Amino acid sequence: MRGTAELARRFASPFGGGELAYWLGALHDVGKASCAWQDKLTKVADSGRPVGIDHKSLGTRIAHERGLGGYSGAIFGHRGGLIDTSSLGKALKQGFSRAQDVASAEAELPRLLPDLPADLRHTIPDTWPQDRLVGEMALRLCYSALVDADGLDTGAHFDGLAAPRVRADADFGHLYKLFEQRRAAMLEQRRATMLAAGKPSPVDDLREQVYAQCVSFADQPPGIYRLPAPTGAGKTLCAAGFALRHAEKHQQRRVIVAVPFLTITGQNAAVYRGMLDEPGAEPVVLEHHSQVNFDDAATGRWGRLAAENWDAPFVVTTFVRLFESLFGRRPSAMRRVHRLAGSVIVLDEVQALPHDMLVPILDGLRLLVRHFGTTVLLSSATQPEFWSLPTLDGVDYTDVLTDVPAVANQLKRVRYEWQLDPAPTLADIADQAAADITTSAGSPPAAMVVVNTTANAQAVFDTWRDGGDLDHARHLSTRMCPAHRQRVLEDVRHRLTNDEPVLLVSTQLIEAGVDVDFPTVYRAMAPADSLLQAAGRANREGRLDHGRVVIFAPADGSAPETYKRLVGAATTHFGPGRADPDDPDALAAYYRSVYSTLNLNDPQHVGQQIQRSRADWAYETVTDGPLDDSGHRDHKRAFRIISADSISVVTPQGAGTPDERAEVEELVQRVRTAPVPDMRDLRRLQPYTTTVHPGVPQRDAGVRALMQPILGSDVRVGALVEWRGDYDPHTGMIFDPKLEDFIL
Question: Is the pLDDT of residue 632 over 70?
């Protein structure tokens, strides 16, 4: 108890909760002092079975009686998770009804904790009770400090260590200096390589100016900052330079970079590792998301342990991992949450935050900045109008670029064309792109088409295949597993670098942060930020007088249901005779109309309902949804970054070689037949696993029959299945397109 208490105090002290966390830790296991609990422990110790006697209720009750009120819920939830505070009284009664010999444990209290104050209210900082939402966030952070300390202390015991493993604070002065040196060397090598190939980048000097200006703002006080740099301005390095310098200047504890898509997580993490990791030293950069292989020798045991609680100076993760931890309730997810306080959080491609969750997300960031010492950097070429929402009323921000229109004008590398009326077919667009690479005098023989669904991507690719363009036609969509997509992307980059002909059709996954440079990009009509992100893949290095971006409304195209309102708003603000997507004023007006159209401020909106649950300290309701009339949780009204349900499908056919495929098939069989699947095997399957919309198997029994369960016995939402159907070496899983809306 003392070991956990001391460590919890250490974790919570940076945000003012040290004493409160200490007593939560000191009381969390006091129920284990009961004779019944100790007797049962003796009986089960050699078997590994749980004791099975409630030990959390006594500490919860004592903390509550001594003035901690709802904060005592951290003790009650230290094993199973935070619950709604309104349910705490009932839960305590049930706990005591199951507990045995509670009196013997309570009798031990004066001996165990002779210094326990009769009144613990003084441990709660004065500002926390003044605002229910501040208190709610404070409890999340204190709970995180408690469960992380408990986990580390327990782990140290079983590993035979004298003390828990906790990494010393990073020297951000050294890391920033190292970053500057390696960044300069990398850019010099890049320039030399481009000059040797006769392909210098005219925008490199401007990127240097943008970087210098961003870093110059890092000395300013902690707060909310925006990096509204246009696509191609080098935001990946700018954001890291700002964050490292800011962390050095203000003694902050770590840098956390979160991105929306797995397609760019590994790419960014590789860049940062090259800048910050040193041979022979403990790694600096932790990459943490669902497809990281911690069995890899490069990460190994360090990566697995650091990922549990983000005990690393520089973390690269996803929006899903970050925000579903922050608004989670289970110990495994929340161990890392206390690391957010006093850190620099960079949200890259921030326009991709889900609209339905914007209000709780923005409010959570507001609280972390205002009350818990965090700095937030919002990075995007298409900065949303977050400050038009009441959630951020009275919250200041600072742009780290002082003249965004001037930088945007200097980086304007494309001209927009519109094909909306008459609307072309997907085959028309495919033919236009194919013609581009045969008449590309003065520019590389390459063109890209970006569409809104995998069925549309398949249609464009089939047009090229039928027209004899298969040698240089490439396809990217989530019909293909990640390993397959990565091979295609590497091939496309090789062709672009060597001026070899290439036609690429892709879904939206190509847009945010994927570094490719085409002379011409065709983009199906989409939300404005998607239009602008696609344009960022055209003439990216500025070597041409201008790139072409052709925005079209396909007569036979389709789009996800969630696009309809957003596309309607986009067509109102952008198009022939109206603005282009890179017009800052029009983009701001677009976002304001989107927020209005989506009714984000309506009391019945899911985001507003989550806010009310947060104000009630209803942690289970936030994470799992409110109870419906039948007593079940309504998950559709819970906090979710990815709201669409899906089925995870393993595709051994997506492996690159026969030996690799055989290995994946062996892994599938091992997971399927194991009494308890090995998590290492599941992680090794991730590069071959994609997600499918549940409508695909629901609508066709034949498709469902080709999905063989790996875990469980049914094909359902959340299942892991194996694809036994056909898999095109160019486009991935083959479905009847009439049965498919899109694949997630």
Answer: yes
- What Cα–Cα distance (Å) separates residue 209 from each residue in 82, 212, 216, 275, 404? 48, 5, 11, 20, 12
Sign of the four-CA dihedral 550, 551, 553, 554: positive
Query: Count of H helices and E strands in the chain?
Result: 30, 19
CA-angle at 197, arms to 192 and 201, nearest 5°: 65
What is the rounded distance in angstroms from the CA atom of residue 300 to the CA atom of residue 297?
A: 5
pTM of the predicted model as reported, rounded to 2 decimal places: 0.91
Give CA–CA dist 672/663, Å, rounded: 14
Helix 204-216 and helix 235-249, axial crossing angle in degrees, nearest 10: 20
Could you please report the per-residue DSSP string of 73-93? Answer: HHHHTTTT---BGGGHHHHHH
Tell me: pLDDT of 83 over 90.
Answer: yes
Tell me the H-state helices in 13-85: 18-27, 35-44, 57-63, 73-76
Which tens digits make up the pLDDT trace of 571-620?
999 999 999 998 888 999 999 999 999 999 999 999 999 999 999 999 99
Q: What is the number of residues in the chain?
A: 744
Tell me how far CA of residue 194 lies from CA of 182, 186, 274, in angstroms: 18, 12, 20
Say if strands 720-723 and 707-711 run parallel, antiparallel, or are unpaired.
Answer: antiparallel
CA nearest neighbour of 247 among 170, 320, 184: 170
Q: DSSP letter for 726, please.
A: -
The overall longest dimension of the chain from CA atoms, in Å, is: 89
Report the C-alpha gap between 523 and 530 in whole angstroms.
9
Residue 118 CB neighbours (<10 A): 7
The pLDDT tens digits for 396-448 are 999 998 887 788 777 788 999 999 999 999 999 999 999 998 876 667 899 99
Closest CA to 415 of 587, 538, 241: 538
User: What are the pLDDT digits (tens) for 655-704?
Assistant: 999 999 999 999 999 999 999 888 889 888 989 999 888 777 777 777 88
Give the integer Cα–Cα distance in Å for 103 and 105.
5
* pLDDT-above-90 percentage for the chain: 71
DSSP 64: I
The phi, psi pair for 49, rounded to 5°, reads -75, 155
